[in-house]
Design goal:
Blueprint (H helix, E strand, L loop, with lengths): L5 H26 L3 E5 L4 H7 L11 E5 L24
Antiparallel strand pairs: 1-2
Bound molecules: flavin mononucleotide.
């Protein structure tokens, strides 16, 4: 199925799967006392070169990991309540 649907579909699917894994990684890290941030603001070609990543792999995102400096935490902006954009259907 993946080969017959073309390269765009394969790339989309790689990013879908990587994003699910990334989310799980971030939640697991939090559970172990670490803080993380997903990032896309980097040069993927440079990262590929530096880390010697083969062309067959798609670079979906980068995750920073460390300990949050709580003292410089900015005030949280407004976040929509989940009920505003999720509907449960029985
Ligand atoms: C897909 C995605 C990509 C992001 N890329 C960057 C990035 O390149 N640089 C950056 O400073 N923050 C980036 N962010 C935002 C940070 O990961 C983080 O969410 C933000 O600093 C707010 O942190 P907070 O949610 O803990 O307040 C990105 C967020 C997402 C969801």
């Amino acid at each position: 199925m993946y080969t017959s649907r073309g390269e765009d579909f394969q790339r989309d699917e790689a990013i879908r799967n990587a994003s699910l894994s990334a989310m799980l990684f971030m939640l697991a890290a939090k559970d172990k006392g670490w803080d993380t941030c997903p990032m896309i603001g980097f040069d993927p070609d440079k990262v590929r070169e530096i880390l010697n990543i083969d062309e067959q792999y798609e670079i979906a995102l980068m995750i920073t990991i460390g300990k949050e400096k709580v003292s410089s935490r900015p005030p949280r902006g407004y976040r929509k309540p989940v009920t505003e954009f999720v509907t449960y259907v029985e």
